[in-house]
């Protein structure tokens, strides 16, 4: 029995030693490296400016889109949608994205795989999906999602309702 109690008393000491060793070994990895770099460069772009730019880029390639209401509270997102001839929709979208890169300074964004392409500019990311072959006799859908990282004009996003200001009542002594 004495042996069992000895091992039981030794277990917390071993755990404390292992914890101290791991904390000492991990301390260099946990040091403060300072603030994170900015998520984007340049001044933040407004939603209206980005929507206008992308609408004109798509229109230059014959794709007519309309701006859909943002409906997301607290985030600046926009969505452009329309329809185009199915035979030329992929080529027109690729040409529009190339025009956005060459004429408006958009950069190729992260590769998300699949049938999507992304572009980034300032605090915005544009995502365009390629939907494949639509049913015969129907125009192909065109959808472009625009997502703001932060710092942009969120005037198109709904705001929280404003209520009366809270004023604390003084307490009597």
Key terms for this structure?
single chain, 173 residues, alpha+beta, 6-stranded antiparallel sheet, 6 strands, 32% helix, elongated
Total helix count? 3
> For the terminal residues, how far apart are their CA atoms?
65 Å
- Cα-atom radius of gyration: 27 Å
Low-pLDDT regions: 152-169
Biggest sheet statistics: 6 strands, antiparallel
The string of secondary-structure elements, in order, is HHEEHEEEE
Structural class call reads: alpha+beta
Q: How do the strands of the widest beta sheet line up side by side?
A: 1-2-6-5-4-3
Helix fraction, binned, reads: 25-40%
Beta-strand portion reads 15-25%
Residue-averaged pLDDT, rounded? 78
CA-based shape: elongated
The count of strands amounts to 6
Summarize the structure.
By secondary structure, the protein is α+β, with helices and mostly antiparallel strands. The protein is built from 3 helices and 6 strands, in the order ααββαββββ.
3D architecture notes:
By secondary structure, the chain is an alpha+beta fold. The protein has 3 helices and 6 strands, in the order ααββαββββ. It has helices at residues 2-26, 47-60, 89-104; strands at residues 64-68, 77-84, 107-108, 116-121, 124-129, 140-148. It has a 6-stranded antiparallel sheet with strand order 1-2-6-5-4-3, covered by helices on one side. The longest helix has 25 residues, at 2-26. It is elongated, with a radius of gyration of 27 Å.
């Amino acid at each position: 029995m004495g042996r069992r109690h000895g091992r039981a008393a030794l277990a917390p000491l071993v755990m404390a030693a292992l914890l101290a060793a791991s904390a000492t070994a991990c301390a260099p990895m946990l040091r403060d490296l300072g603030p994170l770099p900015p998520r984007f460069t340049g001044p933040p772009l407004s939603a209206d400016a980005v929507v206008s730019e992308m609408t004109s880029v798509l229109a230059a390639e014959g794709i007519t889109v309309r701006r859909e209401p943002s409906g997301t509270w607290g985030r600046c997102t926009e969505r452009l949608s329309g329809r185009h001839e199915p035979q030329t929709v992929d080529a027109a979208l690729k040409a529009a994205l190339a025009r956005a890169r060459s004429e408006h300074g958009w950069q190729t964004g992260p590769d998300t795989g699949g049938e999507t392409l992304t572009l980034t500019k300032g605090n915005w990311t544009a995502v365009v999906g390629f939907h494949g072959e639509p049913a015969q006799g129907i125009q192909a859908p065109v959808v472009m999602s625009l997502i703001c990282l932060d710092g942009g004009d969120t005037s198109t996003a709904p705001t929280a309702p404003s209520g009366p200001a809270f004023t604390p009542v003084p307490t009597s002594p």
